Amino acid sequence: MGDAIAVLAILVPVFIAAFALRWVRMIRLNSEKQIEQNQEIIALLKESAKESGR
User: Fold this and answer.
1) Please, which domain of life does this record's source organism belong to (predicted)?
2) Rounded distance between C-alpha atoms, residue 21 and residue 14, angstroms
């Protein structure tokens, strides 16, 4: 019984760390996509402002 508790005590933090790293990676990838989309939006807004100013 004690061995099972020891194994769980070791594995639980490992799984938590793995899930945390995966979560951080997903957030980073989504942030990069959002930065690209924001840059496209800014470019379109600048283009629209030039056209409306003519």
Assistant:
1) Bacteria
2) 11
pLDDT tens profile 2-33:
898 999 999 999 999 999 999 999 999 999 99
User: pLDDT at residue 53 above 80?
Assistant: no
CA distances (Å), origin 33, targets 38, 46, 48, 51: 9, 20, 23, 27
Give the model's pLDDT for residue 54.
66
More confident residue, 46 or 53: 46
Distance of CA 12 to the CA centre of its chain: 23
For the CA atoms of 11, 14, 15, 19, the dihedral, rounded to the nearest 10 degrees, stands at 180
